[in-house]
Amino acid sequence: MDLRVRRHPVLGDMGGGDEVTIFVDGRPLPARAGEPIAAALYAAGIRATRYSRGKGEARGPFCMVGRCTECAMTVDGIENVRTCVTPVRDGMRVDTPGVRRHGPARV
Amino acid sequence: MKERKERKESKEREEGKATGEGGRGAARDALQGGRDDPWTAAWEVSRRKAVAVVDCRQEIPCDPCETACRKGAIRVGDDVCALPISEPETCDGCGRCVALCPGMAIYLIDRSADGGKAAVTVPYEMGEEPRAGMEARVVDGEGKELGRGKILEVRAMGGAAATLLVKVEVPETWALKVRGVRLRQMFIEEPEEVEGYRGTGDCLICRCEEIARAEVEKAAGSGFRSLAALRRASRVGLGYCQGRFCREPLREELARKCGRGVEELGIGSPRPPLRPVKISRLGGGDVRDTQF
User: Fold this and answer.
1) Is residue B47 located within the same domain as residue B159?
2) B125-143, pLDDT tens digit by residue?
3) Which residues pair with A29 in a beta bridge?
């Protein structure tokens, strides 16, 4: 699945950075240099970025501008990184924090 | 704060500018011959010819519609935030305003053909190529499907060539409801449609601490009279985002329950840093490191 907008109806061809690879929970995922981690996940159809600490519910990017922290993941071992405002880097390790206790395994 | 508000209101009174809906509503009535809404006149004129209907509800600084119209049939006026006022008799139905309104809030209606049909022209900016003769799903302002309509004509205007004008034939009774056409199904599933998943119920007020509306209502109704007290008791607003998203609904709920005004409750006691930063940065780490 790739939800990237390659040709925008009004803005035209979107171009995009070179392909890089990030590792999401250990699995390689192609991404475009310069795009936020959350964008790469979303484009691949990954909607859950963490599982809430209390109820273990799936959470995903909500505000996309770095305020709500719903997209906070563990990046290269650093916890609580807001993935919607953090660009991808080749070889980056992105891990989903929390444990699922409700809902589907991967939304 | 309060004084400043009073000064502003008295200044507006001096300038003869009424606050709220009244002022603009009155101006609109005067320009449109006292009719109660902007669509009545357009509806009547559309019996004879294609005419623009302006469904603009955003009082934002925006006026391309005014300059788009070569007939001077749309006016925003000196207050760039005012809602546009259209003059259907003067409108020649060219569609430039439809193509140039950034909010896609203008469309044409034409009821001149008989047979209970109307031709509605809406802007279209999605990737697929609509063509005359195709069937399109016709939607209202909330994206709800009204039914299907036949595309009569597709054209582009100079200056906004990426925005296509799609003229679609619909039953006359839909003429004022149609706001767009769709050529395909939305391809992203809404989370509600994920099988077997209903979440744990109620809508969340505090997303970080996972506190639902019912819990906030219960906590707010148990005698607290300040945001700080409610926060300490329930942890609402004390999570990752530090209340950036829940503060407003929280204030409103507490105000309702404790009988104090929203203004009076204040905004709690926000402290720096405004954005999350790494502790190491506060301790002299690399200031270019913007992650937290």
Assistant:
1) yes
2) 887 789 999 999 999 988 8
3) A22
